[in-house]
Design brief:
Radius of gyration: 46 Å
Structural class: alpha/beta
Order of helices and strands: HHEEEEEHE
Helix content: 55-70%
CATH class of one domain: Mainly Beta
Strand content: 15-25%
Number of strands: 6
């Protein structure tokens, strides 16, 4: 009987030991699985962080590019406003000149009328007044818009122009499109005359300037009219 009890206790102890071992193994497996899940979670978090960081960098790059475009557009808008104001000033000057010539024409017509009505007028005096009137009419500028042309600048080389004259600052331009002697009105520069040719394309007008810095300053697109 005592032996049977000893065997039962031994069996019970062995079973408890086995349960303890099973529990340890189970806990170890659960811990290992938990570590794997945690490791996978860390990897996922790192991937999400990297993706977010990459997206953030892309957005910053795009923002900087758009910021640069906005600054460029603001500068271009400022240049456009300056050009418009300059054209307004040039147009006002041209209109003033036309008004002055029109007034002179009116005076000449009135004078012609008075001279014609006078009994003592001579044929030579009448011809003189008529010539003066025609001259005034011919001096009224007529401009034809040609579009926008690219402007570049060049400085003196010591050589004469294609027409044989030496270039003059504020007067001479080179063009392969317009005939020599053509009078041009260039927005922002005023009246210039085609006296030279060059190695540029037909959509370029090369303006004779006194210095290289002035050449760089005028480089760009300008509206151009032909004055007849």
């Amino acid at each position: 009987m005592g032996k049977a009890r000893t065997l039962a206790r031994h069996k019970t102890s062995k079973e408890e030991t086995m349960r303890t071992e099973d529990m340890k193994r189970t806990m170890a497996i659960v811990f290992f699985i938990g570590m794997i899940i945690a490791f996978i979670g860390v990897i996922c978090v790192l991937k999400v962080h990297r993706a977010y960081e990459s997206k953030l960098n892309a957005l910053n790059t795009e923002y900087e590019a758009q910021k640069g475009d906005i600054e460029y557009l603001r500068a271009s808008l400022g240049d456009a406003y300056s050009e418009i104001n300059h054209l307004k000033d040039e147009t006002y000057e041209q209109q003033t000149e036309i008004d002055l010539l029109t007034h002179k024409l009116s005076d000449a017509e009135q004078e012609l009328l008075e001279v014609t009505e006078a009994e003592y007028v001579t044929a030579s005096e009448l011809e003189e007044v008529t010539n003066a009137t025609e001259e005034l009419i011919s001096n009224i500028p007529q401009m034809t818009y040609q579009g926008e042309y690219k402007l570049t600048g060049y400085v003196a080389t010591g050589n004469p122009c294609a027409n044989g004259n030496y270039p003059t600052v504020g007067y001479t331009v080179a063009s392969n499109y317009f005939p020599l002697g053509t009078k041009l009105y260039i927005a922002g520069l005023g009246v210039r005359v085609v006296e030279d040719r060059g190695g540029m394309s037909n959509d370029v007008i090369d303006v004779f300037m006194s210095s290289e810095s002035e050449c760089y300053a005028i480089t760009g697109s300008r509206k151009v009219w032909v004055i007849k």
